[in-house]
Amino acid sequence: MKPKAKTVFLASTVTLFALSLICYPQQSLEASIRGLNMWWEVVFPSLLPFFIVSELLISFGVVNLLGVLLEPLMRPLFRVPGVGGFVWAMGMASGYPSGAKLTARLYQEKQISTIEAERLASFTNSSNPLFIFGAVSVGFFHNPNLGIILALSHYIGNICVGMIMRFHGKSQEKGKQKRSKHSFSFPYAFRVLHETRLKNEQPLGKLLGDAVRSSVQTLLMIGGFIILFSVINKLLYMMHITEYISFIFQYILHLFQLPKELSIPMISGLFEITLGSQMISQTDKAELLEKAIATSFILAFGGFSVQAQVASILAEANIRFKPFFIARIMHGCFAACFTYILWKPLYVHPADGNMRVIPTFLIERSPSWINHYWELLHQFGPIITIVFLCLYIWLTAAQWQKKVIE
């Protein structure tokens, strides 16, 4: 009976979505354009270099070298191999869903086990610093000081998630726990680097072409999800479904003493973090601390758009999505709690016995490089996207032509 009920539910949902597109064509088009602009202006040009470099680092054996060197840190803390340190660092630097992509790649190369892949994916996916400081704190809140709170809460919360998820699958690993036969050793690490490079004797041009093609394919999938969930979010609002859900959500917010006005922005944030963060920043009947807590939660939760991207990447490698979803809920709770804890020591300053809050619209104190880089992304991002899409088409056509000739 369950499979039949699932079939009816999925068919009904897709049919309702199709009818909604017909009923609200103008709003759907506007939401689609908004998602497309976000993808080709910011997401594609900011993630592409990280994806390409990551592919090359794996091919040249640099990741294996780091795996040997980071084994003494990653194994005791998170119960994952040392190569997880590379995934962790790249995930923090480049943002969602880099951690999932690199985890899937290492799993497919049999450098990590299934349980280790589930652990690794749970804490190596996060928002990148540029988005937290540039888009959220400066762009939406016009408050660069808020970025420090959000970033620290976000990354400390992720570390806590990793330390909890180290216990995931512990019973399944009894008698199977892998331990490195070699201690921390630079000579052994460089030997591993050399042996890995020798195993992959492909020309540099071929490696670079494969890296570009694989990265663009992943980014096209990410773009599709961003546009899809942007449209879904808008349709839910137009059909007043968001409004009905907000009534239930208000009771949850009341338990945490947060204003009910944050319900609709947070629901939007559960689907797409950029729109949710923007709506939270524009909520008038909420204090800045309350806005920061709500924003911290949705940044850590990632939104269903990001989770759908991760689910697609993990599914291709046959890695379960459920542990990742549970970890995102934990991360959201941790990040919100750390925002509350860090608020007074890092944001509020005692002055003459009174608590004085830093002015909200203090844009001039923001790091100039963040504003400059963010402006460059919006200005030149579309050009970079178009150039690499053309390069991808050329590489794919060349590969297809080569197969036809052979």
UniProtKB/TrEMBL annotation:
<keyword id="KW-1133">Transmembrane helix</keyword>
<feature type="transmembrane region" description="Helical">
    <location>
        <begin position="325"/>
        <end position="343"/>
    </location>
</feature>
<feature type="domain" description="Nucleoside transporter/FeoB GTPase Gate">
    <location>
        <begin position="42"/>
        <end position="135"/>
    </location>
</feature>
<feature type="transmembrane region" description="Helical">
    <location>
        <begin position="77"/>
        <end position="96"/>
    </location>
</feature>
<feature type="transmembrane region" description="Helical">
    <location>
        <begin position="146"/>
        <end position="169"/>
    </location>
</feature>
<dbReference type="InterPro" id="IPR014226">
    <property type="entry name" value="Spore_IM_YlbJ"/>
</dbReference>
<feature type="transmembrane region" description="Helical">
    <location>
        <begin position="376"/>
        <end position="395"/>
    </location>
</feature>
<keyword id="KW-0472">Membrane</keyword>
<protein>
    <submittedName>
        <fullName>Sporulation integral membrane protein YlbJ</fullName>
    </submittedName>
</protein>
<feature type="domain" description="Nucleoside transporter/FeoB GTPase Gate">
    <location>
        <begin position="219"/>
        <end position="315"/>
    </location>
</feature>
<dbReference type="Pfam" id="PF07670">
    <property type="entry name" value="Gate"/>
</dbReference>
<feature type="transmembrane region" description="Helical">
    <location>
        <begin position="47"/>
        <end position="70"/>
    </location>
</feature>
<keyword id="KW-0812">Transmembrane</keyword>
<dbReference type="InterPro" id="IPR011642">
    <property type="entry name" value="Gate_dom"/>
</dbReference>
<feature type="transmembrane region" description="Helical">
    <location>
        <begin position="292"/>
        <end position="313"/>
    </location>
</feature>
